[in-house]
Amino acid sequence: MQGALKRNQGFSANASIEIERNMRKLRTGLQWLSLAMLTILSAYTSALADPANLTVAEIDEMMSGNSIHGFFPDGVTEYKQNNHADGIAVVVVKGDKIRNIPWEAVEMEGTGHYCEDWSGDGWGKLCFTVTREDLTKPVFTNAKGKSNSQNWTKGFVDLNFAD
User: Fold this and answer.
1) pLDDT tens string 77-96
2) Rg (CA), the chain
3) What is the mean pLDDT of residues 95-107?
């Protein structure tokens, strides 16, 4: 009887050691799993964050020799424009005259901005931050925080409108 008791005590001690070893492995595995989940959650949260504003160099590269077209922020006024590398945008507003508008990419308060000088039409210089999650649909945001997505085309577009 005492021999059987000793065997059970030995078995219990070995089982206890084995359980403790397995618990350590489980704890380590759970720590790794928690770290992996935290990494995935951080990446997901970053992906949901607002897209980064383009730099002056990125804006200049995107706009120079290329076109944007779509609608003014009013959602009604359609326009097309070809941005020449010399800093002139040839802008056509549907039903209106052709305009040569000076444009530039500038840094303001550490952030790149796309600016157009509409002073000749009485609107002054208009500047926008630019984001570009979708390469063909940059988003221009004015100083008041109003955003407007435009169509971007590599090279120049036909400035005529179909009737």
Assistant:
1) 999 999 999 999 999 999 99
2) 31
3) 96
